[in-house]
Design a protein that fits this description.
Helices cover about 0% and strands about 40% of the residues. About 45% of the residues are buried.
């Protein structure tokens, strides 16, 4: 596995930790690769919100605090994005942890741009976790980075780490040393990306299961009444909400929209929160995948816990990733039930979304759901 280090200097000559490279090699991975998660840090009002995510991406910083810095860099920028601003992690430093679910993707490649100030941490140490808790460097080389005072591209290729494929718990941690405990100085990051190749494990949403059929779907665009708001566009599923009440809002998204549907309205689940239950009969289908777009307001639930029942009564989390962080911008949640035979061809299949304890007693705030789909192969 290679850790490719490319240093931009004023003469636009790039040096690599392995060999000389030209600027073209900083282009996004090509071929079957697609962008999975991305931050360009150009929106200074919400630096922590991904510019793009397939769902679940977030970061935390255990140091003093973070803010924006101008200028940023256009190295590794996507979609013709400008350099704009970057992310500044202030001393004293702490771990910088980036959650990067790879559900539906394999052979992922992690890239970021970094530099430091004269008093900023001189070294960065990169590790990763496959279980969300225990960090290792197995399979990576050159995980110890000497940080320049000019922007540098760092790239880590996980194609030789099978456990990083299709893994909802995948995270990368960057730790700092040498000057990390000073009261001044900072580290800077820009254009953080994860690219991957879609797999069949992630269902049709990941682009792999091309024979999957859409058999339940809500776009929540008919706000004529509360009944029409939750009436399915496809299928015979039923939605119920045990919280305060639900209504619609025009702050919606076209993530996961089908049939050319526009970003009309979305379902708003008002606090105090309660369980959101989806009755999703899978009769005649197997390899079930549930996908929906979600977000919260500042007082909405910061987590969603997913469980399911195959008998219509008893809810379990066996065989799925059940805990998801929810941000103040839309992202996708995908739950893959294809490895659970009891979910197949089951008229009693239901999914329950539970919200955090704080939101269950809050009198303001809400969570939002849009473009909810269930797909599977016909029997």
């Amino acid at each position: 596995m290679r850790n490719k280090l490319l240093l931009l200097i004023f003469s636009l000559v790039l040096f690599s930790c392995t060999d000389d490279r030209d600027i073209a090699e900083l282009e996004a991975p090509s071929g079957d690769y697609q962008l999975v998660h991305y931050w360009n840090f150009n929106d200074t009002s919400s630096l922590d919100v991904p510019t793009y995510t397939e769902g679940g991406a977030e970061f935390t910083y255990a140091g003093s605090y973070f803010d924006d810095v101008d200028p940023g860099s256009d190295i590794n920028a996507r979609n013709n994005d400008v350099a704009g601003t970057g992310l500044r992690l202030r001393n004293p430093s702490g771990d910088f942890v980036v959650s990067l679910p790879t559900t539906g993707f394999k052979d992922v490649i992690f890239t970021f741009i970094t530099m430091r100030t004269s008093n900023g941490p001189q070294n960065q140490s990169v590790s990763y976790t496959l279980d969300g808790t225990n960090y290792v460097t197995t399979g990576l080389s050159n995980t110890e980075i000497g940080v320049s005072e000019q922007f540098v591209a760092q790239q880590f290729d996980f194609t030789d780490v099978p456990g990083a494929d299709n893994n909802a718990n995948f995270k990368i941690k960057i730790s700092f040393s040498v000057n990390a405990d000073l009261d001044s100085g900072n580290s800077r990051f820009d254009n953080i990306t994860l690219d991957g190749i879609a797999t069949t494990e992630g269902g049709n949403n990941g682009g792999g299961n091309t024979e999957a059929e859409l058999f339940h779907y809500w776009n929540f665009n008919d706000e004529t009444t509360v009944a029409t708001l939750v009436a399915p566009n496809v299928g015979n599923g039923v939605l119920t909400y045990g919280g305060s009440y639900y209504d619609s809002t025009t702050e919606s998204t076209d993530m996961n929209a089908r049939n050319g549907d526009v970003a009309g309205t979305t379902l708003r689940l008002r606090n105090p929160s309660g369980d959101f239950i989806m009755a999703l009969p899978t009769t005649g289908h197997k390899n079930i995948v549930l996908t929906y777009a979600t977000m919260r307001t500042s007082s909405g639930s910061a987590t969603q816990t997913i469980s399911y029942t195959t008998n219509g009564t008893d809810y379990v989390t066996t065989g799925i990733t059940s805990q998801y962080a929810v941000d103040v911008a839309f992202s996708l949640i995908t739950v893959d039930f294809s490895g659970i035979p009891a979910v197949n061809n089951n008229p009693n299949f239901k999914v329950k979304v539970s919200f955090d304890a704080t939101s269950s007693t809050a009198t303001s705030g809400n969570n939002r759901i849009d473009n909810l789909t269930v797909e599977g192969n016909t029997l």
